[in-house]
Amino acid sequence: MAPTDIEARPIRIYLIAPEGAPDAPEHALKVAAEAGDIAALLIPAPIANAPALIAAAQKADIAVIAVDGVPVDGVDGVHVDGDFSRFAVLRRTMADAIVGIGGLARRDDGMTVAEAGADYVAFGRLASGDAPLPLDTREGLLSWWQAVMTVPCVARAETEDEALALAEAGADFVALAPDLWTGPDGADRVARLTVQFAEIGARTAEPGAMLERVP
Asked: Distance (Å, rounded) from C-alpha 64 to C-alpha 74?
């Protein structure tokens, strides 16, 4: 295969919804969806207008995933952070739904849940930005994962620079913290990241590109 025939590595945006009673997040989501390529929306905790947000996401062909235990209906999947036994139960009982797991900190943990049927894995927590794994640790794990595994990997970003670093390291989906997409500059940021992710995906699609980054 000639270099020009190599397909770009898809890198997509995964939004994390704000908690509590935010101001019209469904409008922010609609604007963001029109601005860029969004694959999924995570509802990390109870939210006042969840039905409207879920409807807006699904109308835009965005998969809606709720953290395990959040009382919402009509979602496409469930996410659990760090609880392997709970993940196993969810995977067994939700055969047709998306089931993802985060809070992973070791290669072996990722391989174990991938083999158990995880639809995606996340090194570090997704639902909360508290006590994250250091960026360089996540970068190393992502590069290794991208080089040897096929199950998609997700990583949470708190800043635009961090989002780019995680995409460069090997994330298939970059999860944007609420402040990155719900503010007045959110749609512009989503549009900008969509273009930059496509450029990174094309540049890192060469066979062995990620192996060179593995520490």
From this structure: 8
